[in-house]
């Protein structure tokens, strides 16, 4: 698997296997096991997905060594303080059954209860301090954020000793988020593409279907290739073995600049929601 290199020198495989909405138990265990069997070496989970135990079991039972797998989890909204964040990372380590994590993200910048008086700023600073401490102790190999817009990043920069290495945001054809991506690049933050298939919304798009047919590829493959050519790190989710496998076959073709631009502009698919307005 090809890899990007984060600003701290840690390498991160260019595709990750997404696990949102894969229920804890046999479905999570089987899909992650199959993904590891067919070549994924990067798994994206989160405390709020509720599947860390099965993800960890699939990793433990796989033929891969721990150091050959890149494992990400995320701290959820009710754990935004120094002490709670530490307890939360300890819980993730325990549930996943590992003694270090490759990447931990603050899942959401501004949980609803922390919006009054911009309490989220102090909460993120404290959460981040706990993450820096775990990073320096070697319990985490990289730290980052998710769903952070420019102003959330700027607020974090005011107190962070270590800059975030990743921002995981919605990036998909029709949602290239050029300004935010450019801001991330200026600060050496790798953009990870969540919902790279628009949580399925890409499959009904006529332009995407036409481009896929021209290359003899699937719609998923051209969406994921678009992501790679943008320099993003896509995190496709699937529980269907043939999709899990075919989503990896995106390294043997190139989209033209014209097709990249057409995919930038498609409409009607899922786009990044405004984190300042979500009801949680
Ligand atoms: N940080 C955040 O706030 C955040 C938010 C959303 C997502 N994420 C991360 O990003 C990952 C991916 O995003 P997502 O779960 O929204 O969805 P996605 O990967 O954009 O799309 C998944 C959907 O596409 C289908 N699919 C996948 N490959 C396919 C193929 N080759 N052909 C046809 N259908 C295919 C899946 O169905 P099957 O399962 O049946 O294949 C599923 O319905 C998540 O799992 C999670 O890890 C993070």
TrEMBL record:
Catalytic residues in the record: 49
UniProt xrefs under CDD domains: AKR_AKR1-5-like (cd19071)
Domain NADP-dependent oxidoreductase stretches: 14-266
InterPro entries, per database record: AKR, Aldo/ket_reductase_CS, NAD(P)_OxRdtase_dom_sf, NADP_OxRdtase_dom
Binding-site residues for substrate, renumbered to this chain: 107
Identification of the protein by name: Aldo/keto reductase
A Pfam family annotated for this UniProt entry: Aldo_ket_red
SUPFAM superfamilies xref list: NAD(P)-linked oxidoreductase (SSF51430)
GO molecular function, one term: oxidoreductase activity, acting on the CH-OH group of donors, NAD or NADP as acceptor
EC number from the UniProt entry: 1.1.1.-
Keywords, in A-Z order: NADP, Oxidoreductase
Annotated site residue numbers, Lowers pKa of active site Tyr: 74
Source organism (scientific name): Streptococcus ferus
Family assignment from sequence similarity: Belongs to the aldo/keto reductase family.
EC category: oxidoreductase
């Amino acid at each position: 698997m090809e890899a990007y290199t984060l600003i701290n020198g840690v390498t991160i495989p260019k595709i990750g296997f997404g696990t949102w909405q894969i229920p804890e138990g046999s479905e999570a265990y089987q899909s992650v096991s199959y993904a590891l069997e067919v070549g994924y070496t990067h798994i994206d989970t989160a405390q709020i997905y509720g599947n860390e135990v099965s993800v960890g079991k699939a990793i433990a039972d796989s033929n891969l060594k721990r150091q050959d797998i890149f494992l990400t989890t995320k701290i959820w909204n009710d754990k935004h303080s120094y002490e709670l964040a530490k307890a939360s990372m300890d819980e993730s380590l325990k549930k996943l059954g590992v003694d270090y994590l490759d990447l931990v993200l603050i899942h959401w910048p501004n949980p609803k209860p922390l919006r009054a008086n911009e309490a989220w700023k102090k909460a993120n600073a404290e959460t981040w301090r706990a993450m820096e401490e775990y990073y320096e102790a070697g319990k985490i190999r990289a730290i980052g954020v998710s769903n952070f817009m420019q102003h959330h990043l700027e607020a974090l920069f005011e107190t962070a000793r270590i800059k975030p290495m990743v921002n995981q945001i919605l990036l998909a054809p029709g949602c290239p988020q050029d300004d935010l991506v450019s801001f991330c690049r200026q600060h050496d933050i790798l953009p990870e593409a969540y919902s790279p298939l628009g949580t399925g919304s890409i499959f009904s798009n006529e332009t995407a279907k036409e481009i896929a047919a021209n290359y003899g590829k699937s719609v998923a493959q051209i969406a994921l290739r678009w992501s790679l050519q943008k320099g993003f790190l896509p995190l496709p989710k699937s529980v269907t073995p043939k999709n899990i496998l075919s989503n990896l076959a995106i390294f043997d073709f190139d989209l033209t600049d014209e097709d990249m631009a057409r995919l930038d502009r498609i409409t009607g698919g899922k786009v990044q929601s405004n984190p300042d307005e979500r009801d949680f």
